[in-house]
């Protein structure tokens, strides 16, 4: 699901609405009529330059050039009506209007080319999101899933938050994480963790071994560049890794410095806080600890909500953090998609101007039956 409006296509660049186009033509008509009727010592022709200049701010070069040509024609009409085209004052007005029209038409061309480049970059970002942050399947075994990603940077469709899910012979494994940093600079780190998870999630027999594999991948390439980081302690990823068996009404969880998932059960919110959390991926070399999975009850009808700190750290105009558990407890809809739709709209309404200060991701998982389908 994507709560943001779709980006305009290349066909839409430089296509203004009719109300906007009416403004420069109305301006030309008014200036022309008033200039023709004005006293001999009053000249309003210079105001005609406003028409192509205004058009260049919202229209493409063709429309800007056309408005400029109409303005020049209007200036010639005024000159013929009042005196003659060869009148020195009108001659200089016409020359100045032609030069300014050419200049603003060039400006409109450059602006349109820049807009096309931006749209192409957005298309590349969307393609990168499809490859790196693949959409989750709606149904995996006995689970229904939904996910949403909100990038803090308006031009970036993917940033430092990550999530993925994969099937195993006995159940479903999921990860949600948040690499240090945000925006496009964190894409490499996110791709590294996701690649390691997808490669090993269906191979490693138990959850601690899988998380140890993720830690080894991050430690070997801490900044996602293939080279040692200048300061390895500055590159890390918080993560929550889950194993949900098909035939057992439980969920096994390892938290690596990540906010605790929320279990929604019968209108109650239960944070799944592990007794022995591990440090973030990339930092276990500095802390002598292991990876221990903790089990929690997960029954049919229950929903687990995974999220990144960009959700709970979103502030409103008064500086108050977003109260995710409270808002999730008020939800009375049905299904993961409806839950994320409600929370996403509420989160954007909570944030001033609908703009988040950090990337935010959420994944909702509902167990719909006790057996895989």
Structural summary, described in words:
- With 373 residues, the protein is of the alpha+beta class.
- Helix content is 39%, strand content 18%.
- The chain has helices spanning 18-37, 50-56, 61-82, 88-132, 187-200, 207-220, 309-312, 324-329, 336-350, and strands spanning 139-140, 143-150, 161-167, 171-179, 237-245, 250-256, 262-265, 268-271, 294-297, 303-307, 360-367.
- The chain has a 6-stranded antiparallel sheet. It has a 5-stranded antiparallel sheet with strand order 3-4-5-6-9, covered by helices on one side.
- Strand 5 (237-245) and strand 6 (250-256) form a beta hairpin.
- It is elongated and about 95 Å long.
- The chain starts with 17 loop residues before the first helix and ends in a 6-residue tail after the last strand.
- Mean pLDDT is 84; it is low at 2-14.
List keywords for this structure.
373 residues; alpha+beta; six-stranded antiparallel beta sheet; five-stranded antiparallel beta sheet; elongated; disordered N terminus
């Amino acid at each position: 699901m994507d709560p943001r409006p779709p980006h305009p296509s290349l066909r839409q660049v430089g296509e203004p609405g009719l109300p906007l186009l009416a403004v420069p033509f109305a301006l030309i008509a008014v200036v022309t009529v008033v200039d023709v009727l004005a006293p001999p010592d009053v000249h309003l022709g210079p105001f005609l330059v406003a028409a192509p200049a205004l058009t260049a701010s919202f229209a493409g070069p063709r429309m800007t050039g056309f408005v400029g040509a109409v303005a020049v024609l209007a200036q010639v009409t005024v000159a013929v009506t009042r005196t003659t085209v060869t009148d020195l004052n009108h001659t200089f007005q016409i020359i100045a209007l032609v030069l300014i029209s050419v200049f603003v038409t060039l400006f409109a061309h450059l602006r349109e080319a820049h807009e096309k480049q931006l749209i192409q970059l957005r298309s590349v970002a969307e393609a990168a999101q499809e490859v790196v942050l693949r959409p989750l399947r709606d149904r995996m075994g006995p689970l229904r899933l939904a996910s949403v990603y909100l990038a803090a940077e308006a031009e970036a469709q993917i940033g430092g938050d990550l999530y993925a899910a994969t099937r195993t012979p006995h159940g479903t494994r999921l990860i949600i994480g948040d690499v240090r940093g945000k925006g496009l600079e964190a894409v490499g780190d996110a791709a590294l963790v996701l690649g390691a998870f997808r490669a090993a999630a269906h191979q490693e027999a138990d959850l601690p071994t899988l998380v140890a594999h993720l830690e080894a991948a991050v430690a070997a390439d801490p900044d996602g560049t293939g080279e040692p980081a200048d300061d390895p302690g500055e590159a890390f990823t918080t993560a929550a890794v889950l194993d949900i068996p098909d035939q057992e009404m439980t969920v096994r969880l390892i938290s690596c410095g990540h906010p605790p998932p929320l279990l929604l059960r019968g209108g109650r919110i239960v944070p799944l806080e592990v007794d022995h959390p591990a440090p973030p991926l990339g930092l276990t070399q500095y802390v002598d600890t292991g990876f221990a999975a903790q089990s929690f009850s997960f029954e049919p009808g229950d929903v687990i909500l995974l999220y990144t700190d960009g959700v709970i750290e979103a502030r409103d105009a008064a500086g108050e953090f977003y109260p995710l558990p409270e808002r999730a407890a008020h939800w009375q809809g049905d299904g993961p998609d409806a839950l994320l739709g409600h929370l996403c709209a509420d989160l954007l309404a909570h944030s001033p101007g609908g703009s988040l200060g950090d990337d935010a991701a959420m994944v909702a998982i509902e167990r719909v039956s006790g057996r895989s389908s």
